[in-house]
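quick one, 141 residues, struct below
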Amino acid sequence: MFFVTVPLAAVAIVGAFILFPAEPRDDRRGGFDLSATLGSTLLVFGLAQGPEAGWGSPIIVGALLTSMALLGTRLAPLMPLRLFANRSLTAAMAVTFIFMGTFGAQYYILTVYLQDLRGFDALATGLAFLPGASWLCWVPG
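---
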């Protein structure tokens, strides 16, 4: 699967540089934001490890509190708020948010279900997804 997506992603990246103009550089913005990166990483770590380690575990509580502190002290938003003025983009973001929160999460939930509750190993779990994904290979005509 990855051998197919890597060349397609490479073509998309090259196409993006060709088709989309560069945004003017805003000197007020910094480069890499370490606090946002660490805050996001700790938030994901806390939410992913919380069920296994226990929500009251010191490492989970510490990770979540540190994440809130790092993300809460940011002065500039991660995304320019002027983007929300574009109604089409706002609608697309809302649809993506709803899709990924519902249908997009099914693969994670089903993987956990099949491996932890049904006792499937990783290969059996992957093979169990094949019938549902086989419609992607069907080309009419």
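The two ends are 23 Å apart (CA to CA).
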